[in-house]
Amino acid sequence: MTRRDFIKGSVGTAVLLGLSNFSWAEVFGPFPPEESFPDLAVVTNGTPVGMTRKAMELLGGMKKFVSKGDIVVVKPNIGWDRNPQQAANTNPEVVAEVVKMCLECGAKKVRVFDRSCNTASRCYENSGIKKAASEV
User: Fold this and answer.
1) What's the number of domains the chain is made of?
2) Neighbours of 90 (CB within 10 A)
3) What's the rounded Cα separation, in Å, for the pair 136 and 131?
4) Is the separation of the CB atoms in 105 and 62 below 8 Å?
5) What is the extent of the structural domain holding 106?
6) Distance of CA 29 to the CA centre of its chain
7) 100 and 65 Cβ atoms separated by less than 8 Å
8) What is the pLDDT of residues 58-79, one digit of tens each?
9) Mean residue pLDDT across the chain
10) In terms of domains, do 14 and 49 share one?
């Protein structure tokens, strides 16, 4: 196929799609209204556990994301060999609460991992995330 043939075919396809009653909704289903998909929840002035619960509630609840029997991956930031007081990684209490909420929704299994910049075993241990997640 030459470049000219490719361009002719692409233009022809675009014209046919433009003239037809084709709709992406036929392929992907109808798109819900934007207001039903908040992208961000901001919560302040509370404990890590309380703020995590409140933020998830504002996003529609964990059941919006996790169904019974799901295998879930939680991917916090565990990139650095730092302790929780240095705040370089996700707060371990937040990670534990997210794992707990997934299990409450009936998740079959919840895995927590990240690709660390430093030695992974040290990052998981020193961040407190390994301990917090395994105690749920």
Assistant:
1) 2
2) 23
3) 9
4) yes
5) 41-134
6) 22
7) no
8) 999 999 999 999 999 999 999 9
9) 90
10) no
Pairwise CA distance, residues 93 & 124, whole Å: 14
Q: Is the pLDDT of residue 37 over 80?
A: no
For residue 48 the two structure tokens come to 């890590």
Residue 36 in any domain: the answer is: no
Longest dimension (CA), the chain: 63
Give the mean pLDDT of 29-33.
Answer: 66
For residues 57 and 38, the answer to whether their CB atoms sit within 8 Å is no
pLDDT in tens, 87-132: 999 999 999 999 999 999 999 999 999 999 999 999 999 999 999 9
| pTM: predicted TM-score of the whole model, two decimal places | 0.73
Both structure tokens of 129: 């995330």
Query: How many CA within 13 A on the CB side of residue 65?
Result: 18
Q: What 8-state DSSP symbol labels residue 92? A: H
d(CA 100, CA 52): 11
